Amino acid sequence: MALDQIVDGLSEVSCDVLVIGGGTAGPMAALKAKLKNPKANVVLLEKANVKRSGAISMGMDGLNNAVIPGYATPEQYTKEITIANDGIVDQKAVYKYAQNCYKIVEELDSFGIRFLKNENGDYAVKKVHHIGSYVLPMPNGETVKKALYRQLRRARILISNRYMATRLLKSSDGRIAGAIGVNTRTAEMLVIKAKAVILCMGAAGRLGLPTSGYMFGTYENAANSGDGYSMAYHAGAALANLECYQINPLIKDYNGPACAYVAGPFGAFTANNEGSRFIECDYWSGQMMLEFYNELLSGKGPVFLQLKHLHPDTISEIESTLHKVERPTRGLFQQGRGVDYRNDSIEMHISEIGFCSGHSASGVFVDDNARTTVPGLYAAGDMASVPHNYMLGAFTNGAVAGIDAMEFADSHDFAEFDAADVARERDRVLAPTKREDGIPPNQVEYKTRRLVNDYLQPPKVTRKYELGMRRLAETRQDMQEHMIARNAHELLRALEVQSIMDCADMAVHASLYREESRWGLYHWRTDFPEKDNENWFCHTLLSKQNGRMTSEKRAVEPYVVPIADDEKDLYDKQRIRATA
Amino acid sequence: MPLASYQTSVPVVVDDAKCIADKGCTVCVDVCPLDVLRISDMTNKAYMAYDECWYCMPCEADCPTGAVTVNIPYLLR
């Protein structure tokens, strides 16, 4: 039978631990769960193919947040991330990450993933952050996925590719019971009963629309349509600080990293049209992004990554990394534009908005054991709320989630779910395939994401948000009543649009709730332009309560690593001050 | 509402002379994160069926015969 033809079918399987998402955190979570209890069944469900899925599909050029003994301490890292994230951090999870990540680096090294070492055999850590040094280049970073996949095969993890999870199943007492998914090439439904479920489904990276108009020309892997955020929401889990958007400084139009983390340590820097530096530090923070935004609007834009002043050998070294790993089509793009790093600077721009804790702090709320607020449900990686956790955070917290989830599975039996929930979900999923006539998913998606750009992109204006909310509601109605899918592939896109719509609604709700400005550009509200520590030094948790989107405050846990008063605003001082 | 088809130049190009999909190879179709490649019923060769490309390159990197070329999508070229 031809691919994409819709097949009627529903099967049921069960496992001890179900990991959803086979990018970065997912494979590590599955591996650690299986090693914790080799007799248990661990299923890794993936919308694409684990061999090449997720943010690190083509590898990664380096670790951006490695706490390597001799270069940095867990205390120092925890302090830096707390300051970079404007103080709204439960430090316990960050500190635990900082303590554990070196072991994970060594483990990855044992998998055959090499990291840059100096002539003494020590890790060659570079400085990119404002205060400490945590960046560790990966000269053979293109091998990451292959190395991980080998480990998964060896541990006999059951891998199910091309299944998109759509909803979580719970018991009447609120415990996780499994998940429902759909085959992306046949539309056959699958129910997976599980004692514990780990969500590792990446960022909500297809939320804003790239200005090129190409819907899949996103910074994040375009498969990361925010399905995990949407599923967690509908399961009643809390989501933290969604108003702290991800907005990144990227190569204009290409929409990938330029990448200052790679080139900066060699002497490259972000410059304005006059060739001058205007930010102190290239580390991605909301405060830095605000200065970037201001510079673009000041008449001193465009903004460039400048490396033509470097030695030709250095440029070649940077070039070979940028054009080989993570986003290798960067080379092709620059070639097409006639840009040679030896003579030309790289034009940069601001990305569209998204949710991603990997770079900012918007994610499903988790504690230091990667537990969400739903018993038996875990989250790790870009979609979990541990801030600024990048690839190494996904690996490290994925490991934490895998171990804790297996402990949970070992001490619990399967929870019972209501068969009516499965029937209801099947009807919801397949609804676009039952209509003869209507609007195709790509048009619903374009419209939704164009509204996100028009009304939600910071600076956040209350009146614009209210209008955006109304227009999104109208589009949601079209989506629910008129969207059609003529084959299984279109159904995949139709389901992704529903995740995108949920994320857009959550972005509006969370942003209107926090009545202050914080995190630089990420949450700059023109109607509340000041930071208000008296009323808003807290997390915001968004969740579905009695069927309605609700937000509430949650106190920041007492710090493990104290921050002195004169250190708190270090990241607010990003702009280079003119000196006489 | 009636639907019309929409012309678009796709970024992934397959050299039919090198492609061995007719011998049973499905590597590029298997690895694509966006699942946009298919094997043609008419030619039995791989082709880009959906213009939803992240220009990420696994299809080109993993193709055993070097038949696949990823170009930058025209809109952002």
From TrEMBL, chain B:
Pfam families with a match to the protein in the record: Fer4_7
Family matches, as Gene3D superfamilies: 3.30.70.20
Domain 4Fe-4S ferredoxin-type: 10-42, 44-73
Entry GO CC: cytoplasm
Alphabetical keyword list: 4Fe-4S, Iron, Iron-sulfur, Metal-binding
Identification of the protein by name: 4Fe-4S ferredoxin
Coiled-coil residues: none
GO molecular function: 4 iron, 4 sulfur cluster binding; metal ion binding
Database matches in InterPro entries: 4Fe4S_Fe-S-bd, 4Fe4S_Fe_S_CS, PSI_iron-sulfur_center
Taxonomy, superkingdom: Bacteria
PROSITE patterns, per the entry: 4FE4S_FER_1, 4FE4S_FER_2
PANTHER family in alphabetical order: BSR3197 PROTEIN, PHOTOSYSTEM I IRON-SULFUR CENTER-RELATED
